[in-house]
Structure formats: structure tokens, C-alpha cells
């Protein structure tokens, strides 16, 4: 039946099976709210483990045992060495090596929906767990706020780790969340916001579901006209140069909508369960964005690359900031820490060359964007021009077109993966992005002469 519907929709059976599994999170969350939430934490761990393993088996068969092996190994590591630096190093090396071997054994020339997909989510989750237990062994007064919020004073049991790993609202495609949040949820600290009266989480969950299905519909319709291999077609190569550039931007937006849709739907089931509670806002309304992985409004309206990063794959970026970037502080070089963090994310995504080129693109793009913004803000004349109300709309349109086109340019290797594909796509637009961003250090002194510093640095 799934194969029939996959052919009818023009997609693959694994993709449809994954979507169906993410949607199953809503009835599973409803069952939890009605029947399981008042049971003991241990029974809730069992429920989440059973649901997650079942979904894993439904999608990947007996390959789900790879996740079970990692859960058991990390439990034993934390049991005998939890709270030590050695446990963190071993967990990091073991989990990343297991993931990379999995990529090597399952990789093809295309993006594959295999057991390695949820396993990459699991890898970050369990590495973060080892760090949290390590942080819990330190003096709380010496921890920074983000580590203090996630640190674990006690070593978790195997049931706690398995429930945390296989929670249906985050096992397959994310989002990332800490063990501390999961334990607060299971131990009933959010119950008064989940069960009493007409809880606001229901409305928030359905809103995310609706947004997810809308974005998925845009992707499904858009991919009929602009498929993933569009940039490799003869029709694309025959376009005028300016149309090819605009086409890259439209293509990038359509391709990434499938990720946005999955994150929104998965987050919706996590909201419905109550895991994502994040206190109240300034107006006293409940917030359910504790595990938000995409800020859809910010993502669609931002006019900077920094805005895209802050609104896209939010929890993975926060995880990388907390567990990689900030842990590299001892290097004493912020730029080097950023580069190594992006390198880690590229390795975590897989072995295809496209991932490494994509994250290199992010590094050089952000370097130029920060330099340009800094120059403008340090010159009173350019700052006045940018803030001129008469030019604001014109600049807004220009920046939006620029960011859309160049963001699509940057994700070309991420989608096309293999070197012969992304090289051909970049050659079609004469590698214009790399000419601009790699050439920036050479022309930056000229821009500094044209826009000299006139305001004191704050």
C-alpha cells in the first residue's frame, strides 16, 4: 500500500514511510496524554522505548539494533566512568566512529533514507548526554548558564537513556533536547500545563502540524517544476545567466522545504506530548518553543545569512554551540573554533564531498557578512545611508534577493552531494559565489579605504 501511494505521489517508499512515522507521533502523544502520563516515570520510559524501537523497525527493520548497541555501550560507559573526561572522549570517538562506518557501509550517490538517518540524531543526543554527566561532576557555581541548565548530578539508568533516545517526537529526525528537559517532563514538572483544562499545547501542536503540511505541499508542488536535479538539466544550462542565478535561489528554497516540513511536524508531536514547555512569555501565555527547530517566519523573512542560521535547524546549531564551539575556548581563537565546529558538522552529516563544501561555504559567507556589517556600522555616512527610511524598502528587497540566491548557491553541494554534480552546477554560474567570498580578503582593504572608520567601536 505504501509503495502504491509513493508512486502516486512521485516519491520513494522510504520517504513516505518516514513521513508516516513522523505523523504517527501525534496519536502516540495522544495515547501518552490520556493513559501513560500518570504512570510512573519507569513505565513512561518503557512506553517511549517501545514506540521508538517500533518506529525504527517499521522504517529500517533489524537495522534498528545499531541504535540499541549504542544505547547499551553509552549506559555502561556512564555507569563505570560517568563524570570523567575519559567518558566524554570515549563516547565522542565511539559514537562518531560508529556513525561514519554506518555512512560508509550504506552510502550511495544520493541522499539515502536508511538507519544512519536517525542514528545521526542519536549520536548528538548521546554525546551531549556524556557531556551533561561530566558537567554534573563539576562545581555548579563555576558552570556557565547553558551548562548549568543541562548538567546531570546523577548518572542516568538504562531505562532513562533508552526513553530519552527513543522518544517518538525526536528519535527519527530530531529535534535535539537535553536529558534534563526529558527527565523534568517525565517526572511531571510540566503536568499542570499539559493536562488541566484546555491546554494550550494542543493548539500549538496543531498549528505546527498545519504549517508542516503546508510547507510539505509547497515542496511537493514545487519539486514537480523544479526537481532536485534541475540544476543539472539542459534546460537550466540554456537559460540566461541572470535567470540561472535566480533559479538557484528558487531551487534552494524548494529543496530545503522537505527538511523544514519534517521538523515542524515532528516538533508538533513533541509539543502535544508536553516536552517542549518553555515557561510563559511577557503576556503570561504559555510558550511551547523549547524544542523549536525552525522559526518559519524568521527563516522566510530574514535578509541576512546570520538570520538564516538562527532560524534554520535551531537545536542542532545550539547543540554545536554548547558542546563543540564553547568547548574549544581553550584554543583562544574564535575564528578557528567556528571553523572546527563547522568541520565537525560536515563530518557528522556524512562522507560526501558536498557536505564539506557546503559548510566551507557557510564559513566564508559569514566571514564576509560580519566584515561588511562591521564596516558599515563603523562609518557614520554608510550607517546613515543604510538607515535612511527612503532607501529602506529598496535595500530590503535587494538584501532578500541576494540572500535567497546566495543561500541557494551555498546549499548546492549539500543537496547534490557528489563532486561531479555540484561542480557542474557551480560551473553553470561560473562559481560566482566562490569568486566573491574567497576573493573578499583581497578586496577588503579597498573597501576599508572607501568606508573608513569614523565612529568609535563600542
Radius of gyration: 23 Å
User: Which residues form runs of ≥5 with pLDDT under 50?
Assistant: none
How many strands in all? 0
H/E order of the elements?
A: HHHHHHHHHHHHHHHHHHHHHHHH
User: Which quaternary structure do these chains form?
Assistant: single chain
Global structural class: mainly alpha
Biggest beta sheet summary: none
Number of helices: 24
* Beta strand %: under 5%
Arithmetic mean pLDDT: 92
In whole angstroms, the N-to-C terminal distance is 63 Å
Global shape? globular
Helical fraction: over 70%
Explain this structure:
The protein has 458 residues and is mainly α. It has 24 helices and no strands. The protein has helices at 2-9, 13-23, 25-36, 41-60, 65-81, 85-106, 116-136, 145-150, 158-166, 179-186, 191-194, 200-225, 234-237, 241-273, 296-301, 305-311, 314-325, 334-349, 353-377, 380-386, 389-410, 412-416, 419-428, 432-450. The radius of gyration is 23 Å and the shape is globular. It starts with a helix and ends in an 8-residue tail after the last helix. The mean pLDDT is 92.
List its salient traits:
single chain, 458 residues, mainly alpha, 72% helix, globular
Amino acid at each position: 500500500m505504501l509503495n502504491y501511494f509513493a508512486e502516486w505521489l512521485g516519491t520513494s517508499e522510504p520517504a513516505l514511510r518516514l513521513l508516516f512515522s513522523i505523523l504517527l507521533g501525534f496519536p502516540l502523544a495522544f495515547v501518552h496524554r490520556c493513559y501513560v502520563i500518570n504512570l510512573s516515570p519507569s513505565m513512561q520510559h518503557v512506553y517511549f522505548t517501545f514506540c521508538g524501537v517500533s518506529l525504527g523497525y517499521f522504517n529500517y527493520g533489524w537495522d534498528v539494533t545499531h541504535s540499541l548497541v549504542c544505547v547499551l555501550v553509552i549506559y555502561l560507559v556512564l555507569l563505570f566512568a560517568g563524570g570523567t573526561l575519559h567518558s566524554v572522549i570515549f563516547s565522542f570517538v565511539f559514537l562518531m566512529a560508529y556513525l561514519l562506518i554506518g555512512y560508509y557501509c550504506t552510502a550511495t550517490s544520493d541522499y539515502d533514507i536508511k538507519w544512519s538517518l536517525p542514528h545521526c540524531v542519536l549520536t548528538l543526543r548521546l554525546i551531549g548526554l556524556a557531556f551533561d554527566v561530566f558537567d554534573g561532576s563539576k562545581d555548579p557555581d563555576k558552570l556557565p548558564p547553558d551548562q548549568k541548565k543541562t548538567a546531570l548530578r546523577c548518572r542516568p539508568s538504562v531505562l532513562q537513556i533508552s526513553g530519552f533516545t527513543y522518544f517518538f517526537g525526536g528519535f527519527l529526525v530530531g529535534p535535539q533536547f537535553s536529558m534534563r528537559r526529558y527527565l523534568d517532563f517525565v517526572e511531571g514538572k510540566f503536568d499542570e500545563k499539559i493536562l488541566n483544562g484546555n491546554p494550550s499545547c494542543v493548539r500549538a501542536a496543531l498549528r505546527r502540524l498545519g504549517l508542516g503540511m503546508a510547507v510539505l505541499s509547497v515542496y511537493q508542488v514545487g519539486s514537480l517544476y523544479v526537481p532536485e536535479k534541475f540544476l543539472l538539466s539542459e534546460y537550466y544550462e540554456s537559460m540566461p545567466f541572470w535567470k540561472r542565478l535566480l533559479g538557484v535561489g528558487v531551487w534552494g528554497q524548494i529543496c530545503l522545504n522537505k527538511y523544514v516540513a519534517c521538523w515542524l511536524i515532528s516538533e508538533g508531536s513533541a509539543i502535544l506530548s508536553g516536552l517542549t514547555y518553555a515557561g510563559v512569555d511577557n503576556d503570561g501565555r504559555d510558550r511551547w518553543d523549547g524544542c523549536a527547530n525552525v522559526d518559519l517566519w524568521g527563516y522566510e523573512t530574514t535578509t541576512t545569512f546570520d538570520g538564516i542560521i538562527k532560524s534554520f535547524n535551531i537545536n542542532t546549531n545550539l547543540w554545536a554551540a554548547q558542546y563543540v564551539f564553547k568547548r574549544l575556548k581553550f584554543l583562544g581563537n574564535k575564528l578557528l573554533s567556528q571553523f572546527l565546529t563547522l568541520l565537525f558538522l560536515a563530518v557528522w552529516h556524512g562522507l560526501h564531498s558536498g557536505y564539506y563544501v557546503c559548510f566551507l561555504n557557510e564559513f566564508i559567507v559569514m566571514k564576509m557578512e560580519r566584515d561588511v556589517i562591521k564596516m558599515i556600522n563603523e562609518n557614520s555616512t554608510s550607517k546613515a545611508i543604510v538607515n535612511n527610511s527612503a532607501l529602506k524598502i529598496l535595500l530590503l528587497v535587494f538584501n532578500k534577493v541576494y540572500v535567497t540566491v546566495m543561500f541557494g548557491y551555498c546549499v548546492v553541494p549539500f543537496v547534490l552531494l557528489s563532486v561531479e554534480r555540484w561542480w557542474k552546477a557551480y560551473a553553470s554560474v561560473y562559481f560566482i559565489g566562490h569568486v566573491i567570498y574567497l576573493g573578499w580578503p583581497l578586496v577588503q582593504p579597498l573597501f576599508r579605504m572607501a568606508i573608513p572608520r569614523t565612529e568609535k567601536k563600542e
